[in-house]
Design a protein that fits this description.
This protein is α/β, with parallel strands linked by helices and about 280 residues long. It contains 11 helices and 12 strands. The strands form 2 sheets. A 6-stranded mixed β-sheet has the order 2-1-3-5-6-4, sandwiched between helices. Helix 1 (about 20-30) runs antiparallel to helix 11.
Length: about 280
């Protein structure tokens, strides 16, 4: 009998993640005995966790906040979009204990918006709030459209500049920087064709409101809880096209499943489990 196919999600403050039920449904539907464990750890325990990972405790892992950059640095090899963003959301453990890092967030974001027919047209103007691993993936995905200009908004301009520097050689077109300030940002959001909240911040603390956006603007939020996501609900009420992060979560997760197993994921079973967990 083959060993159980053990996977995990590594992050902090992630106890309520729906990824567990989604991935365990995918494992069951693919005929694998296995598990997907939520590993909620503080930074000081990462070295011990990495030792367990290399020792084969898990075949693979997803990585979420706040460790996407830290665990990218710990990988032996980076592939695909992990090389481009410097962040990982997927780690595969080889039989020899090497850690291979990849990033399925950019592709998952594109697939999520495309299935809703919300993907922007070439030449669009984008505003992305945030400068972490999720924001880097969103910027990379949007630059592949390609959008004409992407404005990255962050509370600390140095973090936005670091993101732009990392992606500067990987994308075409302009990447601009903007302060997390409503007055400063007003002219950027007023002309945006798509605006993406790639932070954990809710509507009340964002430096814009849906009322400031042109009626043709699309609003996307990487958050998927609590539902309805406040920014998405307010945008829909204002007559804008909008979506939350559930589709991105689903597609990036299924791309990770494919990396770990080498097989086509059981999409329907996984999606049903995710929707049930989210109360969709």
């Amino acid at each position: 009998m083959p060993d159980p196919f053990r996977l995990c999600l590594i992050g902090e403050g992630i106890a309520d993640s729906p990824s567990q039920v989604m991935q365990e449904a995918a494992l069951a539907a693919s005929g694998r005995e296995g598990s997907y464990e939520i590993v909620d750890v503080p930074p000081q325990t990462l070295p011990a966790l990495l030792r367990d990972l290399r020792a084969g405790r898990w075949r693979g892992a997803n990585v979420t906040i706040p460790y996407k950059y830290a665990l990218a640095a710990a990988c032996d090899v980076l592939e695909g979009d992990a090389l481009r963003t410097g962040a990982v959301n997927t780690i595969t453990v080889t039989p020899g204990g090497r850690l291979v890092g990849d990033n399925t967030d950019a592709a998952g974001f594109e697939m999520g918006l495309s299935t809703r027919r919300l993907w922007p047209l070439p030449g669009s103007r984008a505003v992305v709030l945030g400068a972490g691993g999720a924001a880097a993936a969103v910027v990379l995905a949007l630059r592949r459209v390609p959008v004409l200009r992407t404005t990255v908004v962050a509370r600390r301009i140095n973090t936005a500049r670091a993101l732009a520097d990392r992606l500067g050689d990987e994308v075409d077109g302009d990447i601009g920087l903007a302060l997390w300030d409503e007055d400063y940002l007003a002219r950027h959001v007023a002309t945006a064709d798509i605006i993406v909240n790639a932070t954990s911040v809710g509507l009340a603390d964002l430096p814009f409101t849906p009322a400031q956006l042109q009626t043709s603007c699309t609003v996307a939020d990487v958050r998927y809880r609590p539902r309805p996501v406040d920014l998405v609900a307010a945008s829909l009420e204002a007559g804008l096209r909008a979506c939350d992060g559930a589709d991105m979560l689903f597609h990036q997760g299924m791309l990770s499943f494919n990396r770990w197993t080498g097989e086509e994921p059981p999409y329907q079973a996984a999606r049903l489990a995710l929707d049930e967990a989210l109360g969709a």
